[in-house]
Amino acid sequence: MKTIELSLILPVKNIENEIIGILNFLRTQIGELSAEIIVVDMGSTDRTVLQSVRQMKDMGFHGYVIQNGDSTVSAALNTGIQKADGCFLSFVFARRLYENFLAPFLEAAKRTKADFVFGCSSREEARAAERHSLSSAILHHGGSQYLKAWILQGKAIDLSAVLIRRGFLLDRQVEFEESCRYGYSEEFTARCLLLSDAVVQAPVMLRRNETCELKRGKQKPAGTDIFQHVEATLRVVDTARTGCAGETDLVRLIERVKVPQTVMDAVNVLLREGNDMRTVRGCLQAFGYNRLLTVDRRMNPKLRRSILLWRFSPALYHPKG
Fold first, then answer.
1. pTM, two decimal places
2. Alpha-carbon distance 11 to 21, whole Å?
3. How far apart, in Å, are the Cα atoms of 57 and each of 30, 53, 235?
4. Closest among 170, 16, 179 to 83, alpha carbons compared
5. Domains of the chain by range and CATH?
6. Quick one: which of 15, 70, 321, 16 has its CA closest to 181?
7. CA–CA separation, 255 and 259 (whole Å)
8. Mind listing the pLDDT tens digit for each residue in 33-55?
9. Which of 63, 140, 154, 311 is most buried per CB count within 10 Å?
10. Contact 166, 84 (CB under 8 A)
């Protein structure tokens, strides 16, 4: 039996009219790669499952269509990871489709024996990654430097365009927090960066295919569930403390910059959803998150000013975005 190199995990719900286009898009991205597609349904009430089975068969895909019940995206992704047979895996989200990265990511992973591969959001990053790829001396390292850049420079890694060695996830027991709806992808990616022995940034400029992406209206309000993102970030702190011995500077950076930033992001969401200032401050007090709103010299000045204004003159504070 031919070895499957790549598993693509696609969580879906109620997209019977769009699934054909998305699977067609994946067919163009797979090309000649040895790949499987794992569609994980999250309790669709339309004909998404039936359409997925039919199209998988008609297009000649190897893979599965799994009914995961009325589950979260996190739970669906965990199911996909457990079911996957590929040496590497990638996640596909219908609302964020990136193109032409799978083959070069797979080549980079095999060449460097990387656990985790991601791409570039600018030409400058791509040129720097190209220079790095020519130097075998710096190919193999963990992801702490990338996590620092994420926190300090806002260079986030999109889970929609990564490649991960499945054995690494299973060996290190890296999985999604199944009850988490907000912050789950960020937590998972951060844990991969913290626990991986070899992280590689491939010299590939990432481009989205917005034509094929799922387009839907506004999501329902997050409400206080948005604080799940704060809890996810606090779990990243725990991972950094236990899994990254000697990385005291990184732990401090997550605690003193990333955690306060996440709390303020939650504040902004609640205010934009129409909650008044007193209610939001009451939530922070009740959950104990107000104590997390400290300032640090390494913070972005705008974030520092936002925290101070919210703490001492909340009536004057207006959410960004």
1. 0.93
2. 15
3. 16, 6, 41
4. 170
5. 1-97 (3.90.550.10), 98-207 (no CATH), 223-316 (no CATH)
6. 70
7. 5
8. 999 999 999 999 999 999 999 99
9. 63
10. yes
